[in-house]
């Protein structure tokens, strides 16, 4: 089965063609990051309008890249939520219309299921069951994954998502947009241990997270070391490093708990923050210690992309699931409310 996948939940227009026999045929992406940079964050109305401009040309391009005649697919899948309503509506409307024109089924996909299944696109994919740590701009979740659509939430963030914590802290430190990757780059130049920030929630049982307090701790440190209102670059790098270590150590501790509680031998990380080099290093060390394996997507599939949506949607179309002719999208959509796919 060959499917076209469309992702427009936020500020990336992503499209891909996936074939259940041959794997990923082609994928392409346009990031609106430069457009939103001057506002220091995503402006929803601008995002929707840009998806309108970019989506159809990108769809044509992905068929060309794959050398597949335009429209030769068995289904069209699209992100139906969670995300920005206007942005989602663009992808859903275009996807639904194309499916109707081409007389093939359409299906709305859960964006976080896309992230969760992204490592399945790699050469050595994880096998069910596994523990998934989903760490993105809007979500932080530990999930017990038994199969496609079989998700039990073990823990989540009570306040800021992991990516959001990176982004907000970076902004506060005066780093350019988008902050997360910038902050992690700066952290790599710093020395661990110079500044120790608290590891939030680790002294409590359970697998929930809380990151918002770290922002304040960093703000206080920055203020403390300001000389004439500026903080030396070196000190900033050490603060960034201290922040990053605190976030990552918290995640490592919670992941260890999740592996212990479930007894699973595989840990999957996905979402934008899973691109973080230090997080991968530290989780790999913990996994090895427990004789478990760590899986993650290639860097470009950590953040939003069409390939993960095409893959997730294809699994569901193969199981016979379909969306009807109505165009429905959801800003919020609990991951553990999805229909299970049994093989
Ligand atoms: P969601 O998937 O929850 O709807 P989103 O789609 O905006 O949110 P993603 O595209 O998965 O999120 O990831 C973007 C997030 O990843 C941003 O918050 C960004 O700062 C963060 N991020 C990207 N690279 C890194 C990195 N190397 N270190 C830390 N954070 C990173
Ligand atoms: Mg984005
Ligand atoms: Fe995302």
TrEMBL record:
Which residues participate in substrate binding? 134-138, 167, 180, 276
Q: Does the keyword Membrane apply?
A: no
GO BP terms in the entry: tRNA threonylcarbamoyladenosine modification
Q: What is its EC number?
A: 2.3.1.234
Catalytic reaction equation(s) = L-threonylcarbamoyladenylate + adenosine(37) in tRNA = N(6)-L-threonylcarbamoyladenosine(37) in tRNA + AMP + H(+)
A GO CC term assigned to this protein in UniProt:
cytoplasm
The Swiss-Prot or TrEMBL record lists the needed cofactor(s) as:
Fe(2+)
| Residue ranges of domain Gcp-like in the record | 24-311
Q: What does the entry list as the binding residues for Fe cation?
A: 111, 115, 304
Locations listed in the record? Cytoplasm
Is Lyase tagged as a keyword? no
Sorted UniProt keywords: Acyltransferase, Cytoplasm, Iron, Metal-binding, Transferase, tRNA processing
Main location, first listed in the record: cytoplasm
Q: How is the cofactor bound?
A: Binds 1 Fe(2+) ion per subunit.
- Family per record: Belongs to the KAE1 / TsaD family.
Q: Tell me, what does this protein do in biology?
A: Required for the formation of a threonylcarbamoyl group on adenosine at position 37 (t(6)A37) in tRNAs that read codons beginning with adenine. Is involved in the transfer of the threonylcarbamoyl moiety of threonylcarbamoyl-AMP (TC-AMP) to the N6 group of A37, together with TsaE and TsaB. TsaD likely plays a direct catalytic role in this reaction.
Identify this protein by name. Answer: tRNA N6-adenosine threonylcarbamoyltransferase
